[in-house]
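[Q] Does anyone have a clean structure-token version of this?
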Amino acid sequence: MRSQVSEGRWTVRARALRYQVELDGDGAGLNRTSCPVPLPAERRNVDTDFEHLAGRLDCVVRSSVACVRRATCELAGLEVGSRPGG
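[A] Here you go.
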């Protein structure tokens, strides 16, 4: 499995013996929402979680011989987040 995240783009590629899955998320040009991430030990929140709440997600599932399923969602929640020091 490989993944890549850049500003407004998410890509995941996974491969098994019989199947391959590709996920491509696109939130470019959309406003992102900042969500608080709790730091319980410090009793505070930090804004390090960024979400595109109406992104586009394309999914393709292939077998070794053909495309098994292809789907698109226009309301995908796409997120990039981290915890400080984590």
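[Q] Thanks! Anything notable?
[A] The chain has a mean pLDDT of 88.
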